[in-house]
Amino acid sequence: LLLGCELTASTKSYTFQVDEEDDSDHILALSVVCLTDGAKDECNVVEVVGRNHENQEIAVPVANLKLSCQPLLSLDNFKLQPPVTFRLAAGSGPVHLAGWHRIMHREDASFEEDDELSEEDEEELPPIMPAKK
């Protein structure tokens, strides 16, 4: 699924979250952050707000864009785990964020167990022999 949002002076943040009851794994990958039509020549700082392993909120700047020197930044599919908030920490934008959202459905645990080979079913591999000269 494709993701796109725009941060402006009036809409400074966008939160991407998934249903907590969903039994799937979600990955959000940020590809491009760019200034769009109407942007001023000022520093526009975009940060990602999430939670660390101690459930404390952390904010990390991911882009500092300026129309005259760096209007676009490729983030090479910077992967994040939802929920995550994108925030315009400085500047008035508009800043467009683009990426993708991948949903990976978890397999049934019983199916995984049935799919595995038992030790008796596994073939024995021949030992590795030294190369001949």
Automatic annotation (TrEMBL):
Region spans: Disordered: 109-133
Domain Nucleoplasmin core: 3-102
Main location: nucleus
Subcellular location: Nucleus, Nucleolus
One BP term from GO: chromatin remodeling
Domain of life: Eukaryota
One GO location term (cellular component): nucleoplasm
Compositional bias of kind Acidic residues: 110-125
InterPro entries hit by this protein: Nucleoplasmin, Nucleoplasmin_core_dom, Nucleoplasmin_core_dom_sf
Protein name according to UniProt: Nucleoplasmin-3
Similarity annotation: Belongs to the nucleoplasmin family.
Originating organism: Struthidea cinerea
Keywords: Acetylation, Chaperone, Methylation, Nucleus, Phosphoprotein
PANTHER family for this protein: NUCLEOPLASMIN, NUCLEOPLASMIN-3
Transmembrane segments: none
GO MF terms, alphabetically ordered: chromatin binding; histone binding; RNA binding
UniProt subunit comment: Interacts with NPM (via N-terminus). Forms a pentamer with NPM at a ratio 4:1 (NPM3/NPM). Two pentamers form a decamer.
Role: Plays a role in the regulation of diverse cellular processes such as ribosome biogenesis, chromatin remodeling or protein chaperoning. Modulates the histone chaperone function and the RNA-binding activity of nucleolar phosphoprotein B23/NPM. Efficiently mediates chromatin remodeling when included in a pentamer containing NPM3 and NPM.
Protein's UniProt keywords contain Membrane: no
Entry annotated with the keyword Chaperone: yes
